[in-house]
Design goal:
With 63 residues, the chain is an all-alpha fold. 46% of the residues lie in helices and 0% in strands. It is built from 1 helix and no strands. The structure holds zinc ion. Zinc ion binds next to loops.
């Protein structure tokens, strides 16, 4: 019985990880995950930060 539970959890994990990967690939295919580039130095930076981590310029459309 314990083995059955362990196998069940394993399957759930695989399904969950596979689902996340599939969702990430689907987002990439739709082009929603795009590299955000600094408005000043054009280097890839994170939209999560209000300032570029390369040149420190304010990012006008940072979320
Ligand atoms: Zn920059």
């Amino acid at each position: 019985m314990a083995e059955l539970v362990r196998d069940g959890l394993e399957v759930l994990m695989v399904v969950a990880v596979g689902g996340m990967l599939a969702a990430a690939v689907a987002r990439l295919r739709r082009g929603e995950v795009r590299v955000y580039r600094c408005a000043t130095c054009r280097r890839p930076t994170s939209r999560g930060y209000p300032r570029c981590r390369h040149c420190g310029a304010d990012q006008p459309d940072a979320s």
